[in-house]
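Shall we go through a protein fold together, starting from nothing but its sequence? Please make up or recall a protein chain and show it to me in full. Go ahead whenever you are ready, and we will take it from there.
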Amino acid sequence: MGLGPIVPAMALFSSDRERRLWLWTLAVVMAIYSTLGLARTLAEALREHGLLGASFPVVSFDPQDILFNLLAGAMAVGASVALAWARRWTRDRRRDVACRDASSTSFRFRRW
């Protein structure tokens, strides 16, 4: 009874660059999480010495601020869509010009 064909193990990373980027990402995430405990200890020490308030201020939901944030988000999304459209339009336009130039030169040098 055979085990079947041996399939080579799939590489975890597609390149050395990708591996380095993931290792750096892991290092940054570990650094962030490792400082969370230190931040709590530092905040308690600052509160004891009166250098930090007991709590954060209460957040109020102002309709004007909410409207501003919605408008800013809509403008950001609209700008992103417009930029993507402009890039696609210029790419297509360049391709059309290149195709037109290529077809006109091939027409000139065609043998009859």
